[in-house]
Design a protein that fits this description.
about 90 residues; alpha+beta; Chitinase A, domain 3; 3 helices; 4 strands; about 35% strand
């Protein structure tokens, strides 16, 4: 069974999401950005979503997590919850 681990940041606007992506690409730690900005409860763990399999997350997440490269920050990704930055931390 396929699996992945990932972390994310959830915010209300695409603009905020893009701004955070720029800051992360500029050197700010993903975990720090998640702790201070994400509206998801996972923010307390630096955005860590743990280990999951295909179909456990919303389809927009699955597409990025199971098709994208590990260690790359993707986003903004729009879902019914808001706008996400997503980083796959491992996959198997």
């Amino acid at each position: 069974m396929a699996w992945a681990t990932a972390r994310h940041i959830l915010v209300e606007s695409e603009e905020k999401c893009s701004q955070l992506k720029t800051e992360i690409e500029g050197g700010i730690a993903f975990e720090d950005a998640a702790k201070t900005n994400s509206t998801c409860p996972s923010s307390a763990q630096g955005g860590d979503l743990g280990k999951f399999s295909p179909g456990q997350m919303v389809p927009e997440f699955d597409k990025a997590v199971f098709n994208g490269d590990v260690g790359v920050v993707y986003g903004p990704i729009k879902t019914q919850f808001g706008y996400h930055l997503l980083e796959v931390t491992s996959r198997g």
